[in-house]
Every structure is written in C-alpha cells, then in structure tokens.
Amino acid sequence: MAHPYYPPTLSLPHYAPPSHAVSTLLxxxxxxxxxxxxxxxxxxxxxxxxLSRRAKAAAAWFLxxxxxxxxxxxxxxxxxxxxAARRDFAADLWKEYAKSDSxxxxxxxxxxxxxxxxxxxxxxxCLLTFLAIVLGSRKQHPARLLACCCHLYGCALYFVTATLDxxxxxxxxxxxxxxxxxxxxxxxxxxxxxxxxxxxxxxxREFEGRGRRIARGSKRKA
Length: 222
Hints:
Elements: H1 22-47, H2 53-79, H3 89-97, H4 103-106, H5 109-134, H6 140-164, H7 174-182, H8 187-221
Helix pairs in contact: 1-2, 1-3, 2-5, 5-6, 6-8
Family: Belongs to the EBP family.
InterPro entries: EBP, EXPERA
Subcellular location: Membrane
C-alpha cells in the first residue's frame, strides 16, 4: 500500500493509514502534556509546599520527560514491529511524527537501540530526579546532571546519524523538517543544557563551601 513517508522506496507492506485527524492528534498530545504538568504541580505542592518556582519548573520538566520516555517511547519499543499497521491513538502519533523521520517505522537499528535505552534507563532516571528535587535530596544535582548529559548525548547522536545519512528519511516540506524533526526535539537540547549548567554551578559551589569549611577547621587545629 502507498504511504506518505520518505524515501518513497521505503517498504511498509502492512501500512495502514491513521484513523485520527492531525488536529485531533496534536490537541490530544497537548492535553496529555498539560495533564502531566498539572500532576507534577499537584505532587510538588503536596510533598514540598516551600519549593521555589525554579525548582518546581525543573522538577516538572523531569517528570514530564520521564513520563514521555516511559509511556510514549515505551509504546514504540513495545509495538515497533507492528506500528505501521496499528491504528490506535499512540500509533497514529508515531505515524505522524514519522513523516519527519521514517526510521521509526522502518525499525532502524539505531532508533530502536536509543529508544530502548531511553525507556529502560533515562525514563526512570528522570522520575527519580523529579523526586530528588521535590524532596530536597543532596543527590538531586548529580542526578540532574547525569540525566541532562544523557539527553544531550542522545539528541546529538540522533541528529548526527540522520544528517550523515542525508536526512533522507524526512519529507521535503518545511513543516516536517523544522516543525516536527527540529522543533519537537529542540527542547531536549536547550532545557538540559540550561539545567545541566545550573547543576554544574551548584556542585561547584558545594565543593567550594566544603573546601572553605575544611580550611577553617585546619586553622583552628593549628
């Protein structure tokens, strides 16, 4: 059956057209994202009402990312072999995004590997980081930094592998390259870069403070 993906020679013998309109898919994704952020705010308010706005924003980001990795990307990993033939809401979302990167429907080995690692490792790490921030754990900045580095490294590999392949898996229309392929992934570069840098500075301040305390203790003993 004919399909809308690039390259046109891509073989998808079991492809079934989406059963949901694009507007329905985008609205549904927006509502689910809003629900995840509302859940984050509710949990934070219950567990730590004194949390600063900056900390709440960072925690909400990690909860949103964790849920997205575990559930949405987990769906892909679980159903990757039959995704082209499925017609449920999540499958249709993936089919729409695949117009910008058909490697997802072609079960490209890199995409399957990076998504599998994201589901198994990075998703749970983001959820644990959310809890560490909300509970004020001293481990929050190492966890934040690790999660941010994983996001940046994963995105770098994702873009570089597609670029080296000539971006031939993306449809030529600007909407799919800039609106889907670039814009949908850009937040996982910009936000982790910002949060990772803040965590580096926080860890640096902690070591500097500890060094000063050790120095003062040594002077007293002297």
